[in-house]
User: Fold these one by one.
Assistant:
Number 1:
Amino acid sequence: MVFNSKDNKYDHLILQEDFGEQIKHLRESKGLNITGLAIRSGLSEDYLTKTEKNLTNPSRFFMHHLANAFQMDFDELINHLYTDNSSKVN
């Protein structure tokens, strides 16, 4: 899954396969349930649940709201959730 970004800065980043599990782990580490994360982020419980199950391709909008909900800056969240593939040879 590739990050949907209009900012070329992140084009080389690939979602880690366990992206949804990482979101769930972050949520739980903050002591939040899905409802609490939905309230803090302004995102729907349904969308957050689908994200944790890797059923959605997150947008930049989603990631900004998620970062705010986790009290992280955007780059910190991106670095945590994505693998940098810019130096890998295919």
Number 2:
Amino acid sequence: MTRKTLTEEEIKSKYNSISECLAICYIQSKRILEDAEILNMDTKPIKEDLACFTQEFMQLCM
């Protein structure tokens, strides 16, 4: 099944939504890590998961 190609307006709208989502994800990730450190939690698994996601996203953008 073939998907419909997005229009220029749809691309711009979706890009703006993704940009906002990434900004929110960054802020929430930073807060989670800060709070985890305050609670003396092991942040290594969280950081590894975030790094993996970031790496995958960066490859998509290259």
Number 3:
Amino acid sequence: MSDELDRKIENILISAISDGFNRALNTLEDAGAINREEMRKEYKGVGSKYYDMVSEQFEYTAQYAKETIRELIEEESSKQ
């Protein structure tokens, strides 16, 4: 599998994971389960403490999942 396809898969996964994370946080906050006031002080985009911590985990998860997707693609391709 090409490096370009790997990057595309990782980018799709990071976007999906990030979207799910943000939606979950908003839902929990709306339900009163969490208060993100303190977190917002250090979650302000690239370079901020919490943002970078969370982004690192998105990237790690995407790399891990990419391997599984790659195996699935290769398995399906070999059947044809």
Number 4:
Amino acid sequence: MMFSISDIIERDAVRDLETFMRQGWQICTTPSLWASGWAGSMLIMRRDAHEIRVWRRPDGIAEVEIDDVLIDTKANTRIARYLRSLMPAEAAGME
């Protein structure tokens, strides 16, 4: 079965996301400062045709994007709760 983050979100299939994220990833980090004025730091994880980006904004909040789909980590879903559980409280915006 091909991984589709849109399908995972639609089904709120946290177990499928956990399985996907347990795979081996190539990981890099980068400080970020773009011409648009965005700053912060970014963790980039790549595997096959997939990419997970976690951007830590200057205000400390983290944003998660999987395969170019921004995940609302403040939503009341199993997926959002799972992603928040991987972050410190301040990065999840839960302080």
